[in-house]
């Protein structure tokens, strides 16, 4: 679990990021989780956009992505989910 200080740090880092994945009406699937997991390994911190035509609530999407990738949901702001997972090979972020 992330502390509130760590979450604040990650939110500030995520501010300048653009969403690199979109969840549409198909919702979350295995292939998406696999791709997001690979992106998290390379970047550690990513944004995912939940499109308006998505049939699931963004909180449920965030929970599914978090569980599927073993990542922490840093925040849900509007229709954007911010995920963090410490990278094994490409560690760039140093949490406070």
Describe this structure in words.
Helix content is 39%, strand content 21%. With 96 residues, it is an alpha+beta fold. It has one domain: 2-Layer Sandwich (Translation Initiation Factor IF3), CATH 3.30.110. Strand 1, helix 2 (30-43) and strand 2 form a beta-alpha-beta unit. The two termini are 13 Å apart. The model has no long low-confidence stretch (mean pLDDT 94).
Keywords:
four-stranded mixed beta sheet, globular, alpha+beta, Translation Initiation Factor IF3, 96 residues
Gist?
GO terms for molecular function: RNA binding. By secondary structure, the protein is of the alpha+beta class. The protein contains three helices and four strands; from the N terminus they run αβαβαββ.
CATH fold-level name:
Translation Initiation Factor IF3
Weakly predicted, low-confidence segments: none
Q: Please work out how many helical segments DSSP would assign.
A: 3
Percent helix: 25-40%
CATH class: Alpha Beta
Shape: globular
Annotated CATH homologous superfamily: YhbY-like
CATH hierarchy: architecture: 2-Layer Sandwich
Radius of gyration from the alpha-carbon trace, in angstroms: 13 Å
Distance from N terminus to C terminus (CA atoms, Å) equals 13 Å
Lateral arrangement of strands in the main beta sheet: 1-2-4-3
Strand-pairing-aware structural class: alpha+beta
Strand content: 15-25%
Would you count the extended β strands for me? 4
The biggest sheet amounts to: 4 strands, mixed
InterPro entries: RNA-binding_CRM (IPR001890), RNA-binding_domain (IPR051925), RNA-binding_YhbY (IPR017924), YhbY-like_sf (IPR035920)
GO molecular function, one term: RNA binding
Domain CRM: 1-96
Keywords: RNA-binding
């Amino acid at each position: 679990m992330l502390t509130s200080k760590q979450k604040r740090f990650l939110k500030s880092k995520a501010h300048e990021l653009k969403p690199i994945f979109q969840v549409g009406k198909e919702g979350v699937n295995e292939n998406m989780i696999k791709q997001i997991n690979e992106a998290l390994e390379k970047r550690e911190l990513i944004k995912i956009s939940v499109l308006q035509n998505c049939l699931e609530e963004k909180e449920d999407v965030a929970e599914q992505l978090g569980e599927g990738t073993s990542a922490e949901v840093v925040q849900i702001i509007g229709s954007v989910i911010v995920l963090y997972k410490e990278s094994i090979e490409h560690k760039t972020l140093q949490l406070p």
